[in-house]
Design goal:
The chain is of the alpha+beta class. Helix content is 18%, strand content 26%.
Amino acid sequence: MQLKRPIRFLGILALVLSAALLGSAGTAAAANPLLCFSGTTDGSTYGGVCTINAGGTSATLNTTDGDSDGSYAGVYYAVSSLSGKPVGTVTGVSFTYSCPAAATCVTGGSPRLSIPIDTNTNGTTDGYAFIDAANCGQTGAASGTVDLSCPVFFGSTLYANWTAFATANSTYRIATDDVAFVIADQPFSGTISNVQLGQGEAAGVATSKDECKKGGWADLTRADGSSFKNQGDCIQYVNTGK
């Protein structure tokens, strides 16, 4: 099982993250859309395709191309409020997957959440915590949700869930030199949606009605980066996601 993205991608993501943070400085809100990565677009020898779907809140991943070097594809947000947090304070991380056929859906440790972990509080990634659909009891499924209630694999240890992982490693933090991502690196053909990776308020995305009031709507965006027409438009998005 390929455990994480190629190093080349991590370097590219570091540049993207830096640009996003610099670009948002001095502005009220920065658009933080769902982004793709894949073997065919990262300049690597790997296969795999990721396409952001209409509306920008889900993506279609396909890693069934049979590339001899292997294939991978996934999604992430360039800015995340998880960065630097103690692992015990992390909540709400999840994604949903749906595939036309179970045979190309949950395979090995894919699809999964990969969360960068800083074990010595220096900000850099010392390893990734993996949360995958198979360990969540979804082998053979064509759809499902992966979240923090699922088993967590870190290093050589499989923890019962994120709470158990955080309790056993209370000094660990989320690294600041990478962001959490969803990846498929076994044969997968389907849709990844409802991706929650700490993209909310840190990215200026409206998450509560109170944020929309007293002119706040003008400084906020939807998850796809689009702006609001007025306070009512903002509140409608919070209530309905549209």
